[in-house]
Amino acid sequence: MALTTLSALVCALVLGPAAGAQSLPQEPAFSYVQSPNTTILGQYGHSPAVYPSPNATGIGGWEAALATAKAFVAKMTPEEKAIMVTGYPGPCVGNILAIPRLNFPGLCLQDGPLAIRVADYASVFPAGVSVAASWDRTLMYERGLAMGEEFRGKGAHIYLGPVAGPLGRSAYAGRNWEGFSPDPYLTGIAMEETINGMQKAGVQATAKHFIANEQETQRNPSFDSHGNIIQEAVSSNLDDRTMHELYLWPFANAVRAKVASVMCSYQRVNGSYGCQSSKVLNGLLKTELGFQGYVMSDWGATHSGVPAIEAGLDMNMPGGLGLYGMGWDGNSFFGPNVTAAVKNGTLDQARVDDMIVRIMTPYYALGQDHGFPTVDPSTADLNTFSPRSSWITEFNLTGESSRDVRGDHADLIREQGAAAIVLLKNEKGALPLKAPKSIAVFGNDAGDDTSGFYNMKDFEYGTLAAGGGSGTGRFTYIVTPLEAIKARAAKDKTLVQYWLNNTEIATSDINTLWIPKRPDVCLVFLKTWAEEGADRTHLDTDWHGNEVVESVASMCNNTVVVTHSAGINALPFADHPNVTAILAAHYPGQESGHSIADVLYGDVNPSGRLPYTIALQGSDYNAPPTTAVATAGPDDWQSWFDEGLEIDYRYFDAHNINVRYEFGFGLSYTTFALSDIQAKKANTKGGPVSAAPPAQPAQPGGNPALWETLYTVTATVRNTGRVDGAAVPQLYVTLPEAASAPPRQLRGFDKVFLKAGKSQTVSFPLMRRDLSYWDVITQDWVIPSGDIGVSVGFSSRDLSQFTKITPLSL
Ligand SMILES: *[C@@H]1O[C@H](CO)[C@@H](O)[C@H](O)[C@H]1NC(C)=O
Ligand SMILES: *[C@@H]1O[C@H](CO)[C@@H](O)[C@H](O)[C@H]1NC(C)=O
Ligand SMILES: *[C@@H]1O[C@H](CO)[C@@H](O)[C@H](O)[C@H]1NC(C)=O
Ligand SMILES: *[C@@H]1O[C@H](CO)[C@@H](O)[C@H](O)[C@H]1NC(C)=O
Ligand SMILES: *[C@@H]1O[C@H](CO)[C@@H](O)[C@H](O)[C@H]1NC(C)=O
Ligand SMILES: *[C@@H]1O[C@H](CO)[C@@H](O)[C@H](O)[C@H]1NC(C)=O
Ligand SMILES: *[C@@H]1O[C@H](CO)[C@@H](O)[C@H](O)[C@H]1NC(C)=O
Ligand SMILES: *[C@@H]1O[C@H](CO)[C@@H](O)[C@H](O)[C@H]1NC(C)=O
Ligand SMILES: *[C@@H]1O[C@H](CO)[C@@H](O)[C@H](O)[C@H]1NC(C)=O
């Protein structure tokens, strides 16, 4: 979804990185101009045509709901049909109007991935990046379920999340934190679990943004003052194998989890807009993955009527034209144009019927036609996107206003925030804290927010627990690190003093701050902002974080650094001898302070693991976003995914580049060991495994044979230390050289809690897709012949257990 208002969008574009004091060096700014690569695709990308748009069949469990949806459509007039596929202004960020004649109450669509944003008395959960860092399937599911309860309680039928695009091709992309991880396997599991939880609560999930939506810069076209396009949106140009093995992969998990909706993306793919690419929507999504729900546009991502519909778009959001389609000006590519196009024979009535069948099938499948709560009337007043003044129809807003839907979710959020914290460094027994006599707290991320709790732009003072844009949340409160530490320290009568002005800490002689001679520990809280509509300009922490650490560590030999961050940070101070511990706490949601205090004091043993790589320096990352073009041609914004499969650890491993903290890494207050790896072939009905999956009609998720377990790998994990804690054993596969795959790819993980001294067997089911590569010639997943290496360990570069399997041998 887009930002709330146009002015917010404009703000997002003009606000630069953190502005700071004159005397401090500028953070190293990122600048990169990419020239068109004519080798791969010709001058620009081209996307093959795939028509007609497939009808939904309900295959895979929605057959009965589909029949009900068809009966509903049969009762509709042409005008009602046009309204059903078009958004109108109303109380929610997206609204499908009610049809009282048919007892249909309409649909309420709400942001966003970590909270119901347009709401009061709702919870703010950990962001996607935190969820990924937890590596905990149960947590992923429970968060989805709890959020689902809140959406439902507020009368929202549709949750605009979860996010697998951006996947995280570039460390700089502004919305990576809304999604999970640049690893498609980890993101795929997080998508699936979130959707399962959300839809268990009876709320439709929306997998977004489909697809290759990997940067914010020029995600939309630029317009002149008359609304004419000057330059089209950036085009993500990528090859078919990369599409399947990276970007499409987690969406396949989402479709398999029977996600109700998929949101098509703003940018172009191989030159075609995401919401009118027939290859992407009709081909990959509806045919290959067997998707049975509906495609909705991102807000203003629709650039045509009939062509978009024929390419597979089913619902136009927010419905109007306007600039970016944001403002409702009474005109729409859909709406009355749909009726007219059917009447004059341009558009097949059957296609329109299928659009509505696709929209109504999940509605019936999830039981939304019975006892679904009404839209909370307070929503209308909080919705700056389509304020009451813009409504062109009346809405029947009944029921209690300002319903408190938070339940006991605060406890869950506190646990989830703590479970997602990654301990990166811990030396000289720095952590956990043991009743220190004196604590000194530093950094503008430690204390209270001074500008309210609705993050729409970067702010200097106050802790950061969620990023900005449509993916933020409206906090009802935030527990700050400082407040939680003060409360916890009071139990030990610890002296707690604090300095929260980064500029002052970074520029003053630290000795002039009257810091008690020798604090037992100095806790430095740093933050890194990211938001929709802008890519990050650097990978350092904001507000002179590096200088703050240098300053504190110059006088404090026990400096513990905590980052609240959108994701990847270069950590140049990591080797400083006085920096004894580093924790990446990402965006933990409303209980942020409690979550970190629980870990600092050892009430919770840290068990988060990096869902990405921290390189030795920012310039080590490849695949930067395209931030400028040197030419002015309307099509010249091109982003070439030349790195193919080599993003994040796949790149660093393929090129043997040393990194600071590798993908999958994270410390604990205890230690673990692995032993006894074994691989067992599943009973495949006697015969040998075929290289390609046996042909079968696509179910949601594609050919069902891709999801069959071919091997089960087991290993024993033991807690070898003295405290209880959770281990995250990870499995990576190495395909034979002939498959030209990255050296290692994650294909299994588990999170196991173990009491000190205890051990447990973990098992990793390996499905056909996990052992295959996408063959562009046969257009199918293929298991390579030869040995496939299987490694199990505690990170992508800490692999102690090896075995090999040879699936194609008898
Ligand atoms: C264009 O792509 C080809 C094939 O991947 C690659 O060898 C070449 O370096 C690329 N050129 C530029 C300018 O990026
Ligand atoms: C993009 O173009 C490449 C190269 O021609 C092709 O392999 C791929 O299938 C295309 N993908 C889409 C979605 O158009
Ligand atoms: C969809 O179903 C209708 C009948 O309801 C049929 O006329 C049309 O050809 C079908 N479209 C496709 C692509 O199969
Ligand atoms: C139909 O679509 C066109 C753009 O193709 C738009 O200019 C026009 O206003 C639309 N008509 C209505 C009634 O919305
Ligand atoms: C049919 O109607 C559509 C939508 O109003 C319009 O774009 C198209 O030009 C019309 N075609 C003909 C042949 O009248
Ligand atoms: C408004 O909604 C209430 C509760 O759902 C219902 O009882 C009432 O009939 C509705 N009124 C109209 C005019 O639709
Ligand atoms: C923070 O410190 C700087 C440098 O000492 C000073 O200029 C600024 O006014 C301080 N900000 C606040 C809010 O006190
Ligand atoms: C580490 O801290 C001590 C004070 O405890 C200080 O004397 C020393 O200079 C610091 N080391 C560095 C490298 O800053
Ligand atoms: C810091 O320095 C003090 C005084 O020299 C020493 O007692 C203490 O052990 C040091 N702490 C660390 C973590 O090195």
UniProtKB/TrEMBL annotation:
Checking SUPFAM superfamilies in the record gives: (Trans)glycosidases (SSF51445), Beta-D-glucan exohydrolase, C-terminal domain (SSF52279)
Tell me the pathway: Glycan metabolism; cellulose degradation
Q: Where is this region: Disordered?
A: 683-702
Return the broad EC class: hydrolase
The entry's keywords: Carbohydrate metabolism, Cellulose degradation, Glycoprotein, Glycosidase, Hydrolase, Polysaccharide degradation, Secreted, Signal
One cellular component term (GO) for this entry is: extracellular region
Q: Where does the record say this protein resides? A: Secreted
Keyword Glycoprotein carried by entry: yes
For this UniProt entry, which residues form the secretion signal?
1-20
A Gene Ontology biological process annotation? cellulose catabolic process
Q: Which Pfam families match?
A: Fn3-like, Glyco_hydro_3, Glyco_hydro_3_C
Q: Which Gene Ontology MF annotations are present?
A: beta-glucosidase activity
Q: What is its EC number?
A: 3.2.1.21
Query: Which coarse location class applies to the principal site listed for this UniProt protein?
Result: secreted
What catalytic activity is recorded?
Hydrolysis of terminal, non-reducing beta-D-glucosyl residues with release of beta-D-glucose
Domain Fibronectin type III-like positions: 727-796
Please give the superkingdom of this protein's source: Eukaryota
Q: Which Gene3D superfamilies match?
A: Glycoside hydrolase family 3 C-terminal domain, Glycoside hydrolase, family 3, N-terminal domain, Immunoglobulins
Would you identify the family this protein belongs to, as annotated?
Belongs to the glycosyl hydrolase 3 family.
The job of this chain, per UniProt, is described as: Beta-glucosidases are one of a number of cellulolytic enzymes involved in the degradation of cellulosic biomass. Catalyzes the last step releasing glucose from the inhibitory cellobiose.
Q: Indicate what this protein is called per its UniProt record.
A: Beta-glucosidase cel3A
